[in-house]
Amino acid sequence: MRGLLVCVLFASSLSFAAGQAAAGYQPNVTVMQDDTQLTIQANGASDEERWLVLRVNNESAIAAMSQRRFEYNAELETLQILEAYTLTPEGKRLNVAADRIYDQPGPYSSEPVYGSDKERVVVFQGLQRGGSVAVHWRRSASRAFWPNGKVDYVWRQSRHDQVLSARLTVQMPKSMGVRWQASGMAAVTASGSGDSVRWTWQYSQPQALMPEPSSVSEDDYSPWVAFSNFSDYADLAHAYWSRAQDKAAVTPGVQQLADQLTAGLADRRAQERALYDWVSRHIRWVGVYFGYGGVVPHSADEVIANRYGDCKDHATLLQALLAAKGIRSSQALIQAGASWWVSDTVPVHFSDHVINYLPDEDRFVDSTIGLAPFGQLADSEQGKPVLVMDDGTGRPRLMRTPVDGSTLNRAVGLTHLRLLADGSMQGATNLQLAGVPELSARRFFNQLPPGSETHAAESWLAETQQTGSGRLLPGSPTDLHHAFAYRTQFTLSEVADLSQPGGMAVPLGLRGRATIASRFADTNAAIRQTPLWIEPGLYQEETVIDLPAKLQVLALPRPLRLSTPFGDYQSSYQRQGGQLRVTRRLRLDWPQPYLAPADYAAYKAMGERVLQDLRSQFLFQTEPM
């Protein structure tokens, strides 16, 4: 029933332990019991009581399970730990002492966060392999989280958990008009009398699903129950906007700043960029959440004065500045992480982030990223359901953000190599980037400590199984007015033995992480059970090799042309005098940034052919002196 628009997660990929569903797989912890009983009053007040028993299956889980954290909003909720204890493998009960239960600020974030959100920490003693931790707690809210008694709730169970018994029981007045939707759960049972209704869902999963690399969030494929009394997503939008609208008012201070930032700019697009760039670069990310601050932004004037704010504050200030110049925009609620989930029939709060929508251009912008050029969304924000407060008609609407394909996402590199007589190579690469590859590179270089360019280059070479040294020469990652590019210089050792006839694959060199091969890095498994996160785009790698005068090329790899539903790949190999010129081009286009498991086999087959071509060799011999 609670939801924060905390805006701290931007993921370029998720990596779990490699693998797939396996009969012998057992997670670190088994959910022995997970019972939740939720009681909601007519005014939206609620009591959530939960019993949880978790068994530790191996030694590595002991440290992680020795304490549990329970989040609550100290201004809006109370949290009681009713009982907590450890069960030894022999069945001995060790109660948690009162001094082992304490509060601390929370939840944890790598960014500065201040507010009334707390974590109650329970520290268990005597935990052993085969033992269990048990905790029973109650969280109560004296008033509804949303205005006008509106409620929404999502209960999830992970497919990666071994769950022996889980149950959700919900009781509330029929007159609240709550609807529900469920996926992957046992049939609901309903009971009640008078104005009271009671629903119960059961779930068990004796065999857990092994996590897989580069998967989307488990929320997208795990069982869930969702319910709310919002009539539709427009109703949910009104609940958010009713408390946020006046925060984006065009005050004299807002007008003065907007005029100052756009002085001398008559072009509408230039004004938009100037205002966006200023908010991106001058408003630090700081979360301040007191009371309903998790879903209510600060006023634009406060954000200007403080020079900090979270995503809601960014979006509010940018909306106000645009409005001061007569430019229409709207706030839009979105999930910033690796989840594309949304309930299609029961409106629930699915978002944790706020961006802006410009209806006259049908464009989404996110100033919170800080390093994204105007109109560039992170890969984790693309193809997402997004609840727009005003779609340009004066009404809210559930929409989807666009997916950047090969016309917008590009990583084009030209590498010049010189093959030396001892079989080593000297080289340099120029990388031209756009879209998501550019944003990823800006983030990397913005966080790279000065003086560590050589160490980072060596790490990149090691990641691609190359031996040598190098240096990275980036442009300015914070300059949003120009496309970001960078150069590399490097030396590769032990590339080929030229003392006898042989073969040599064309080295990748020092190109960074947006490579053709990396598009298929997680396609080793025969099958997949979960969606695979991909990155559509155009990836081109052109390599020119200066050959030693006495080196004779005996044969070149055959060119490859490949066309698939995911895009196409082509390569060419040419000898031009004393040079070898190799061009490889991969175009990936797909309507979503992920593939369903049913599409994985065909994508894997494409990757196998592409990777085989990348490993192909040209044959040579050195002419006798």
Radius of gyration over C-alpha positions, nearest whole angstrom:
28 Å
Count helical runs: 9
Tell me the distance between the termini.
80 Å
What profile does the largest beta sheet have? 8 strands, mixed
Inertia-based shape: globular
Structural class label: alpha+beta
Poorly predicted regions are 8-21
**Roughly how much helix do the residues carry, as a percent range?**
10-25%
Name the average pLDDT.
91
Q: Beta-strand percentage?
A: 35-45%
The total of beta strands comes to 36
Strand order in the sheet with the most strands: 5-4-9-2-1-11-14-13
Question: How would you describe the overall organization of this protein?
Answer:
With 625 residues, the chain is of the alpha+beta class. It is built from nine helices and 36 strands. The strands form nine sheets. The chain has an eight-stranded mixed beta sheet, with no helix packed on it. A hairpin with an 8-residue loop joins strand 22 and strand 23. Helix 3 packs across helix 6 and helix 4 packs antiparallel against helix 6. The protein is globular and about 95 Å long.
Topology, pairings included?
Elements: E1 29-40, E2 46-56, H1 62-65, E3 67-73, E4 77-87, E5 93-95, E6 101-105, E7 113-115, E8 117-123, E9 132-141, E10 152-156, E11 162-173, E12 179-183, E13 189-191, E14 196-205, E15 224-228, H2 233-244, H3 252-261, H4 268-282, E16 284-285, E17 287-289, H5 300-306, E18 308-309, H6 311-324, E19 330-334, E20 353-358, E21 363-365, E22 385-388, E23 397-400, E24 410-419, E25 425-434, H7 436-447, H8 453-463, E26 468-474, E27 485-492, E28 502-505, E29 532-533, E30 537-546, E31 551-555, E32 560-564, E33 567-576, E34 579-588, E35 594-595, H9 597-614, E36 617-622
Helix pairs in contact: 3-6, 4-6, 5-6
